[in-house]
Design a protein that fits this description.
By secondary structure, the protein is of the alpha/beta class. Helices cover 42% and strands 18% of the residues. The relative contact order is 0.15. It binds zinc ion.
Length: 252
């Protein structure tokens, strides 16, 4: 059993074929998935996609690249979405200084307001942080609320600091890339009890399918690489990362 903690079956690239992709994932033993939003429309779509599947859950939130025009009214709508029992976390939220498509002050404001919302609903947060580790760290430290560092790309030292704040480290396709020294070091050194796996599909396709469209079934390759680096059986990586994911998302 594998738990792909971050998929975008609500995306334009995957939505139409979602039923086929879900079946292909099940055939590979991927028995749990979270569909993640990044703005109001994709969040609503995430809720819609998971309806009728008892092994799928939704995560709703407004990401740093999509918050330019976010208002308090939008956050009130998000507040409503969080009442849905299929919604297990608030995300993906955070800071993105790579694209820098939204002024940093605005990114921080919407990030902080959503942390408050997650606390109100007692749901964990799923963090997108790109080229913004230190500011992300400071906001999360002040926020005092745990969750998941999605597609973690920082150093082992940085991972430890986030773990100390109550976060799990989620590894995606880059850990399988040949020259990805840092993610491999993180996979090797971070305690398996603090690791999650994800595809972030349709993006970040792992080896051996790099260059093709990514899908949830490929999460198996991420688990395999972690197992190789940690000298463990892949079944153990699958079992423990699934246990971790169920724990953080409050799934029985
Ligand atoms: Zn994502």
């Amino acid at each position: 059993m594998y738990f792909d903690t971050h998929v975008h079956l609500n995306s334009e690239e995957l939505y139409e074929n979602r039923e086929i992709l879900i079946q292909r994932a099940l055939d590979q033993g991927v028995t749990y998935m979270c569909v993640v939003g990044y703005d109001l429309a994709s969040s609503l779509k995430a809720i819609e996609v998971v309806q009728g599947y008892d092994f799928m859950y939704a995560i709703v939130g407004i990401g740093p690249n999509d918050c330019l025009e976010t208002t308090d009214d939008d956050l009130n709508i998000l507040d409503q979405y969080l009442n849905n029992p299929k919604v297990v976390a608030l995300g993906e939220i955070g800071l993105d200084y790579y694209w820098d498509s939204v002024p940093r002050e605005k990114q921080k404001e919407i990030f902080e307001k959503q942390i408050a919302l997650a606390k109100k609903h007692h749901k964990p947060i799923v963090i997108h942080s790109r080229d913004a580790s230190e500011d992300t760290y400071q906001i999360l430290k002040a926020g005092q609320h745990g969750g998941v560092m999605h597609c973690f790309s920082g150093s082992y030292e940085m991972a430890k600091r986030f773990i100390d704040l109550g976060f799990y480290i989620s590894l995606a396709g880059p850990v399988t890339f040949k020259n990805a020294k840092t993610p491999k070091e993180v996979a090797e050194k971070v305690d398996l009890n603090k690791l999650l796996i994800e595809t972030d599909c349709p993006y970040l396709t792992p080896q051996p399918f790099r260059g093709k469209l990514n899908e949830p079934a490929n999460v198996v390759y991420i688990a395999q690489e972690i197992a190789r680096l940690k000298h463990l059986d892949v079944e153990d990586v699958a079992r423990i990362t699934t246990f971790n994911a169920k724990k953080v998302f409050g799934i029985k």
